[in-house]
Amino acid sequence: MTYPIKSPAGPSFVSDPGVNENVAMSPEVSSNHQGLSVMDSLRKCTEVLETFSRLREGMNQYQLPPAPGPSRVKSLEFRTVVASSFRQGSLTDSGKLEDSETEILAELDEMDQRIQEDYQRLCQLHSQYCKALDVALQSKTALDSLYTYHHRTYQSQHKDQQKLQLMSDKLQQQSKMLEAKDQEVDELVRKNKDLARKLQDSENQAFNLQSEQNINIHTDVLVRRLENSLREANRRSTSMQEELNTLRQEKAEKVQPDPNVDKDTLSTILKEKTALSKSIENLERSLEVTRQRLKFAENYVVDTRNEIHARDKQIQALEKSLERANHNAMAHESAAIKARAEKYSLSRQLDDLEKRLSLAQNEAGYYRKELINAGVELKDQPRRIEQPEDELRREDTVEMEASPDQAR
Length: 408
Description:
Blueprint: H1 34-58, H2 75-85, H3 94-253, H4 263-407
């Protein structure tokens, strides 16, 4: 089995940190983050697996040699050898030879006993070696399965991290779009209020213009009445002028008094003449006043007609602006309704994204707990492996200490 991690420097697939606790998915992660400790544990697990692989290559389960039997040295053979060795010695040394033979036999028995003890010790070491080998194989298998499982878990979590990042980016984009839509809606509402205010002002102006139109209509009636009065005054002034001319003519005819007329008649005529003169003066004054009033009325009629014409133009312009304001108000109202609908749709999408993000965070939390538990198991696994190795080291130390005694 090949592993993606080949050196303690760092795994090839570990480029991003684990899932952050915050919703914003910040790229800055502290050194004591739980995901990093889990990845350190996975890296150590890979190193242990490589160590196991190298050790397993040099560890073969050898067979024990057969159990040693008792020493086959016979006392007769030993005496023959000793006698041949000391053939030229004196007979007085025979007792010493027998004593040395007894010592040699005792030493041989002791050596046989030590050989049996060493063999038993070798059997125990072989049993411990087999157990340690089984534990190492089981640990390697367990670490292999744990590494595969948690590596897949980390990869799935890494994919979830990318999905969460994409969801977070999309969520931020939707939030910005919502803020832009809110600003657009606020701007449309403000414009709608301005248009409503302008519309109200236009309606007030239209009402005022309507009142002015009524006033103008009343003024037209008065102007027509005034024109009729002026025509009547002209007619009366004409008739009065004719009467004045007639009176002047009669006066001219009566300048020369008739000698046949008596004094009473003459005084009566003079009185009538004086009365006619006063009447003529009064008629001339009234005619002048009437002419002045007629001229003023004509000027007032001209000014009133000009003002009515200007007010008609203002009314037409205000009606056009009122029509444009109504059209713009309807357009802005439809745009505001459309913006509200888009805002509602974006709010629904934002709620869905928040729900999906919450589910993804819960799943990421579950995977994080699994990785933490895996890290704890990976930290405990080398301890279980190191216990048989410590026992083997202690036994090797005891054996090495016992070897010089045996040599002596």
